[in-house]
Structure of Hydrolase:
Amino acid sequence: MGISLAAPDGTELVAEVTGTGPPVVFVHGSNGGLDSWTDIGDRLAGYRIVRYARRNHQPSGVGPAPNGFAAEAGDLQTVLTAVGRAHVVGGSYGATVALHAARADAERIASLALFEPPLLLSGPHLAPVIEQYQRLFTTVRYADALELFLREVARMPAEVLADGPPIPDDPVAAMAALADLEAMAGDDTDTGRWASIGVPVLLMQGGRSWAPLPEGMDLLAAALPRAERVSWPDQSHFATVTAPDLVAAALQTFLDSRVSGST
């Protein structure tokens, strides 16, 4: 079932809801969308799966610029208001959104499951990258802009970038990545702020992910008071795509333990 919601600033948010049971809200990463978590959500049994497209990602609407994590956290709270208190699963940038939402107001969040939020990649050092990105975007060099995002923002190693799929010359994808870049540039690397999040948290990561993703996960685990971890040695930052069975199994175990522990 498709639903349409209005964010606090009026931006349209589009979500898909399937299944029955306690709700699980999935938050996708950069250049994702409604289908990002489908392979994993379809593997979960006993839950109502809620997948929404973040602002600036079709078919949701385009929000005001510059983008920020406060707006994205407000969007997630809008979804939670519509579906009720839920478990929240976030991947990469989407995991950072989930952290911001939980820190601001965790009343509607039963638990968090986070895959490699890029916490140490944010900060004002990205301001010059925004300027370069905007020059590429306005001169219709969308593929070059997206490559810049992967290289300078995500810090994807050259060999990983070379082995990946072709970068699309897509203005919609480039616009979405710019919005995520704006939010990251307006954030900082203070991991101690997440210590106020008191809900149970599952931290998931790949053993082959590049720096500084593992270092950020270590700092986050140290800050969170109720965190448990799972790592897949042979996987990387793409584990949600390359190993959906592993991710779904970890989520099933974690969510089932939370549900059984609350009854």
About this structure: The chain has a mean pLDDT of 97. The two ends are 28 Å apart (CA to CA). Residues 2-121+189-261 form a domain with the Rossmann fold fold (CATH 3.40.50.1820). The chain has two domains: 2-121+189-261, 124-183.
